[in-house]
Amino acid sequence: MKFVTDPAIALKISRMKERVRWQHPFVLKREIDQTQLVIDAPDIDNPNFSFLVIGDSGSGYDRSDNPQHRVAQSLLTQKDECRFMLHTGDVIYLVGSSEQYSQNFIRPYREFLVGGEAPQQIAYDRMVFNYPFLPVPGNHDYYDLPFVYGAMVQSMLPFRRLLRHQLDLDVGWHGSRKGDAYAKAFLDYLFAKEGEAIARHLDRHYVAKTSSGRCLRYVPGQFTRLPNRYYSFRVGGIDFFALDSNTFNAPLPLEDLEAWEITQQQLIARRQQLLDDKQALLNQVADLESQPAEADSDEVNDLYSKVEQIEEQIRDIEKQLSADQDHADVDTEQLNWLQTRLIQSWQDADVRGRVIYLHHPPYVTEATKWYQGQTLAIRHRLRQVLDGVQQALGDRSPDQPLVNLMLSGHAHCFEYLRTEDTGHGDAHLNWVVCGGSGYSLRRQRPEGPVLTEVLSEDQTQAVAKSYCFAGRNGHGSQKRHPYSFCESMSKPGNLLKSFCARSLLSVIIADGVSMS
Predict the structure, then answer these.
(1) Residues 309, 244 within the same domain
(2) pLDDT band at 511, cuts 50/70/90?
(3) How much is the mean pLDDT over the chain?
(4) 515 in a domain, yes or no?
(5) Backbone angles phi, psi at 493, to 5 degrees
(6) CA dist list (Å): 326 to 123, 321, 361
(7) Is there a contact between 367 and 258 (Cβ–Cβ < 8 Å)?
(8) Pairing mode, if any, of strands 414-419 and 459-470?
(9) Does pLDDT of 500 surpass 60?
(10) What pLDDT is attached to residue 420?
(11) pLDDT of residue 516
């Protein structure tokens, strides 16, 4: 039995469209743009502003400590100095279950919620934020769990805890129901309304106006729903584009992967090796837990973390092996939307910068992610978009990046990378991975900070370099778990400054890059 299941891309798209009543006749009649929102908050047009970024935070039960709670408390110290908070996905671990929101989200972030002084009384599908909170879905927010497995886990959990079993079975009963829990928590869930109730709702909440038509008015403390799983908004002259990368991360067909020196035989051999490694780790856990009084809980948790990483890699390989029949399921509608809106953004004299944030990183040196099929697919499809934007815009100064800042999660670390001359529209861009905000940090790959691609049988090209990495490091008593979040600052004059709250990174974006 598979531990988790990931719905097909076409199913994710169709279900999410149903939930927001995508292009409903009442929406079309009012010329509403369901991919746009306007934040109704004081000083929202001031070009001098900061914002917070977190990702991969949604952990719950923990025997000794809860990193997400510590990160949330650190966020509070920066809250008043920042305008809003972005989340790069994986809001709820392990499988996005609705019953996990109370423990894994509402309690840690109660100070950001209306009624947060009594978090136990807040329903996950009735949350109202007193501070703009703007997430995108992660893969775990779409995952499902076989009911039999969920029931078995929940029925055995009290006994496992009584016996001091170290495994954190924080999975809930059923999973996300194909992203339904995320949609009910954060999106404007119009599917729950019928007839004229939809019209009245649209006339009340979709009253903001932009160049693309009417759109949702996001009012902190009153109405804080998002119009769609992907969307855009503008603050202080900066256009933000929030993407759902779970619908364009399908691995490329095997014939395309061979250009990256990946073959079917290699994938099959790699999967078998991972299965063997997983079994060896589980045997180590069994040996440790046979003597629970002497078991090192940190060591056991590390072993289970490695098992979870291996299972993720196995799922990715299985997706690559089936890519020939599944690769057609790519969210071209969203990608075309992004390309069109980026071009429009560049043609708007009121816009001085652009930020894109999504879950899956196209560039990363975290050990389990660089060679994943999803990483290659995201990079390939974003390149296609940015190539199209570059072609439409024509010649530009190399000091003007197509996008000022790219943010992602998925890799459980904090990292700053800069692309080299890739030969595509993603050249010379600044990328920040912010996925170390609470769940199971990972190590950096041993190959080093320079990322390369294969050009030919005997030639490779450096495409990106990592300048800062903060993830699990050290061994034994020297082991460190630097959980993190990011704070970014925008200033007048096309200047966007991004820095980690723990002083890990300082990047000036627009006229170049400087490190401190």
Answers:
(1) no
(2) very low
(3) 84
(4) no
(5) 90, 35
(6) 37, 10, 21
(7) no
(8) antiparallel
(9) no
(10) 93
(11) 29
Burial class (CB in 10 A: 0-12, 13-18, 19+), 363: buried
- Domain boundary residue among 324, 346, 363? 324
Of the residues 299, 324, 349, the one at which a domain ends: 324
Q: How far apart are the first and last CA of the chain?
A: 49
Tokens of 229: 């799983």
Instruction: Let me know: does 100 contact 154? Beta carbons within 8 Å.
Output: no
3-state secondary structure of 53: strand
Residue 328 pLDDT exceeds 70: no
Of the CA atoms within 13 Å of residue 179, those in its CB half-sphere come to: 30
- Percentages (nearest 5) of helix, strand, coil residues in the chain: 35, 20, 40
Bridge partners, residue 113, by sequence: 129
284 and 244: one domain?
no
Does residue 364 lie within any of the structural domains? yes
How many angstroms separate the CA atoms of 61 and 439, rounded? 11
User: Could you list the residue range(s) of the whole structural domain that residue 295 is in?
Assistant: 254-324
Q: Are residues 195 and 207 in the same domain?
A: yes
pLDDT at 3 over 50: yes
**Size of the chain in residues:** 516
Q: 284 with 357, same domain?
A: no
Instruction: Report how far residue 219's alpha carbon sits from residue 207's, in angstroms, rounded to the nearest whole number.
Output: 12
pLDDT at residue 474 in the model: 84
Question: Residue 359 falls within a domain, yes or no?
Answer: yes
185 and 318 assigned to the same domain: no
Q: Which two tokens stand for residue 10?
A: 């076409």
Contacts 24+ apart (CB under 8 A), 218-222: 218/37, 218/38, 218/39, 218/40, 218/132, 219/40, 219/41, 220/39, 220/40, 220/41, 220/129, 220/130, 220/131, 220/132, 221/114, 221/128, 221/129, 221/130, 222/128
Torsion, Cα 406 409 412 413, to 10 degrees, reads 20
User: 313: helix, coil or strand?
Assistant: helix
Peptide bond into 169 cis (omega under 30): no
As a whole number of angstroms, the distance between CA 361 and CA 408 comes to 5
Q: What is the 3-state secondary structure (H, E, C) of 70-107?
A: HHHHHHHHHHCCCCCEEECCCCCCCCCCHHHHHHHHHC
Lowest mean pLDDT among 38-42, 127-131, 235-239, 497-501: 497-501
Q: In the structure, what pLDDT confidence band is assigned to residue 440 with cuts at 50, 70 and 90? A: confident
Task: Give the SS3 label for residue 16.
Answer: helix
Domain count, the chain: 2
Domain presence at residue 514: no
Give the model's pLDDT for residue 254: 59
pLDDT the model gives residue 252:
78
Query: Helices (H), strands (E): how many in the chain?
Result: 13, 17
Residues 27 and 127 in one domain: yes
Cα-based angle 48, 52, 53 (whole degrees, multiple of 5): 135
